[in-house]
Design brief:
Blueprint: H1 10-16, E1 22-34, E2 38-44, E3 52-57, H2 63-69, E4 75-84, E5 92-103, H3 119-123, H4 133-155, E6 159-160, E7 166-167, E8 179-180, E9 207-209, H5 214-224, E10 226-234, E11 247-256, H6 260-281, H7 283-292, H8 297-306, E12 310-313, H9 314-323, H10 340-351, E13 355-361, E14 377-385, E15 389-396, H11 401-410, H12 419-426, E16 432-438, H13 439-447
Parallel strand pairs: 3-5, 6-10, 12-13
Antiparallel strand pairs: 1-2, 1-4, 2-3, 4-5, 7-9, 8-9, 10-11, 11-16, 13-14, 14-15, 15-16
Bound molecules: 4-amino-1,4-dioxobutan-2-aminium adenosine-5'-monophosphate and magnesium ion (MG).
């Protein structure tokens, strides 16, 4: 560190720094512009999209030596005095008095030069891409979304609960599980019947990375009434799409004494709150996305905040899709799960806003969803968003013991494995509901980023876990 002067974040300096203030900034050089008597460098410390312009006068001690080291990517500490900027684009700039180059970046090899790079290329340098404008904006918005989420639930008295990452149950029953084992894969122990002998494994049974914290969130909701989880979830689905990750974050509120209506109302208020919060706290970043990534970003945010979501049953949605004058790749008929093209048609072509689709056929949804009177559909709700498709999946839960047991068996699962989950229906059962928001899909929706790999710092997808 240079000395005891206060060091300040660039976002704050650009917002409220005053001429004649002495301060230190620390960051990375974005550009260098050498003029006859002095040099401009743009320094960024990740706190804002905008850089701080620093002027290095040629009278500065060791001017030439420092300049040689000050290339794009180098880390610097600059002590100086703020001056009113004469140039366009910024209110203040920093006149350097003392410059320390902490780490150089060789211009011959440093891959992030001034030109614009494709997101595909930037994925190959995942350890450096956060130093670009786009990824800076993405991760600030991601942080703001996380903040908004906690704020929303904490203000409403929800308890944040931590559910396990290693689990023995498959919440969604889809079999998309990553196994967790400490067995030696070169010498796996077998039982007499040649099955893997999991009694020799770490937990004495098969275990997996969780696909959802819901079942455990239900346990906690039966004591605290309103809870939410916010953590990583894992799915070994071999989907190479722009909306699927093998490791993604999910937010899962769970409410006792709540039905599907209350669940939908909460989910809608929740999304509105997050958009409102990010519009207020990250306006510069959202403007950037609107200008450079997707020119509907700001209109979408306004649309979310100001319009009621469409609410429609699955059966009605199918009828609308059957009438649609477009040819879908997957033909539509009652009983089939909605594909992304159907979801997008509904909110992009028909409603022009998010849609909440409810009451899906029982056979395409998970065992825990509450069976409707018709015995054919369940109290499910998916929220579909323009360009993204499903962003939230949730339901009212089956609180009746016998019905739940029937549903578990019908789906080929074992009631013994879920004894503790069934106990929740034996002791003090209550109508309850909840949902899961895919955090990365939310960030995609908010920023207009086309590929989900570009809204999480370290994406995990099939054949890819490099960084
Ligand atoms: O619809 P899903 O599978 O629902 C559940 O897991 C429930 N247990 C949630 C609950 O009711 N508590 O997943 C919820 C959301 C989806 O709507 C989607 O946004 C996201 O998680 N999601 C994924 N996001 C990224 N990559 C994947 N592979 C995803 N799979 C689901
Ligand atoms: Mg779903």
């Amino acid at each position: 560190m240079l000395d005891s002067m206060v060091n300040r974040r660039i976002a704050e300096i650009l917002r409220s720094g005053q001429p004649d203030e002495s301060l230190i900034v620390q960051g990375w050089v974005r550009t260098k512009r050498e003029l006859k008597d002095f040099t401009f460098i743009e320094v960024n410390d990740g706190s804002s999209l905008a850089n701080l312009q620093v002027i290095l006068d040629q009278d500065l001690p060791e001017y030439d030596k420092i300049l040689k080291k000050l290339n794009t990517g180098a880390s610097v500490e600059v002590a100086g005095v703020l001056v009113a900027s004469v140039g366009k684009g910024q209110r203040v700039e920093l006149k350097a008095e003392k410059v320390k180059v902490c780490g150089e970046a060789d211009p011959e090899t440093y891959p992030l030069q001034k030109k614009r790079h494709s997101f595909e290329f930037l994925r190959t340098i995942g350890h450096l891409r956060s130093r670009t404008n786009s990824f800076g904006a993405v991760f600030r918005v991601r942080n703001a979304c996380a903040n908004a989420i906690h704020q929303f639930f904490q203000e409403r008295g929800f308890l944040w609960v931590q559910t396990p990452i290693i689990t023995a149950s498959d919440c969604e029953g889809a079999g998309e599980l990553f196994s967790v084992t400490s067995l030696n894969l070169k010498d796996v122990p077998h039982t007499e019947t040649q099955a893997v002998d999991y009694s020799k494994d770490f937990f004495g049974r098969p275990t997996y990375l969780t696909v959802s914290g819901q079942l455990e969130a239900e346990v906690m909701a039966m004591a605290f009434a309103q809870v939410y989880t916010f953590g990583p979830t894992f799915r070994a689905e071999n989907s190479n799409t722009s909306r699927h990750l093998a490791e993604f974050w999910m937010v899962e509120p769970e409410m006792a004494f709540c039905n599907l209506q209350g669940n939908m109302d909460l989910a809608e208020a929740f999304l509105k709150h997050i958009f409102q919060y990010v519009m207020e706290t990250c306006s510069e970043d959202l403007e950037f996305f609107n200008q450079r990534i997707d020119n509907t970003v700001l209109a979408t945010a306004e649309n979310i905040i100001n319009n009621q979501f469409e609410r429609i049953t699955y059966t009605k949605a199918i009828a609308l899709l059957e009438k649609a004058d477009v040819k879908f790749e997957y033909p539509v008929s009652w009983g089939l799960d909605l594909q992304s093209e159907h979801e997008r048609y509904l909110c992009e072509q028909l409603f022009h806003k998010p849609a909440i689709v409810t009451d899906y056929p029982a056979q395409i949804k998970a065992f825990y969803m509450r069976l409707n009177e018709d015995e054919n559909t369940v109290r499910a709700m998916d929220i579909l968003a323009p360009k993204i498709g499903e962003i939230i999946g949730g339901s009212q839960r089956e609180e009746r013991l016998e019905v739940l047991e029937r549903r578990i068996i019908a789906q080929g699962l074992k009631t013994e494995d879920l004894w503790w989950y069934l106990d929740l229906r034996r002791y003090g059962t209550v109508p309850h509901a909840g949902f899961g928001l895919g955090f990365e899909r939310l960030v995609q929706f908010m920023t207009g980023m086309g590929n989900i790999r570009d809204v999480i710092p370290f994406p995990r997808t099939p054949q890819n876990a490099e960084f």
